[in-house]
Amino acid sequence: MKTLVFTNQKGGVGKSALCCLMAHHLVRLGLRVLVLDVDHQGNTTRALVKSGKPLQSATTADQVFTDPAATVEAEKFVLVPSDYDGLLELLDYPVDERNILATNMRRFLRASAADKFDVCLVDTGPNPDIRVLSALVSADFVLAPIDLGQEAIDGIGKLINAPEVGIATVMGSGLNPSLKFLGMLPTRVKAVALHKENMRTIFSSSQYRSMLLTLVDDPKSGDDFAMVADRTVIQQCQASGQFIGEIRDQTAARETWREVKPVLDRITHLMGVA
Ligand SMILES: Nc1ncnc2c1ncn2[C@@H]1O[C@H](COP(=O)(O)OP(=O)(O)O)[C@@H](O)[C@H]1O
Ligand SMILES: [Mg+2]
Question: Would you say 25 and 273 are in contact if contact means Cβ atoms under 8 Å apart?
């Protein structure tokens, strides 16, 4: 089983929408998929429950952190749902006792989930806390949806270098030597001046450019970099629980799926799961 974490301490950048899209896509490819929603806001949980597709596990996400014997059902598509109160309580753990939460999560993934699933997707919340850190030290891959709006460039600095949960911080900490950064994925991208300007700024920094998710191994032009445009139909699907890849009778949905599918396929390829 390969574990992919979606992270960014900015909210509203499209982590949950992408996590849900990815989950449906991988299931349709025939992979066994576990989704773990460790954000107490539960947006991924809500959308996936509405879809009616996954089995909702009897284990909730907070138990993955607190119960060293937490298990998960073996099904093709399982959601370990967010539990609002339980996940918030984790934040009250004394700092010197927090390690056990990460240890439990790691054990859950390796001992209970590993043989039952091909992929585990972990959706995280926007707070730089132990839930995000636990996910990052337990995962194989991390992907960071980013936005191009106000303070986008500042946001990237935090995403990479924040204490504890910054991607470079985790990678440099030695806590998870096998973690691979798939890249930053500009999401909800609009054809407006601010977004274009911020994209230019990212491209003009060789450090930031090298951190972007690419559609090919050796990117030559701007088209070789991945992004997800701002599309009403993505928002609608996230609200209704529908999977955009299964909507045949709407032109906007078909066109948007044509844009999004190559990004999801690339992520799948980079994880080496299909
Ligand atoms: N590519 C997109 N186009 C349009 N709306 C989007 C897109 N991605 C996400 N959204 C919508 O934007 C809002 C925030 O997205 P969400 O995935 O919940 O962000 P996060 O999990 O990072 O907080 C949601 O209403 C979601 O449906
Ligand atoms: Mg979210």
Answer: no
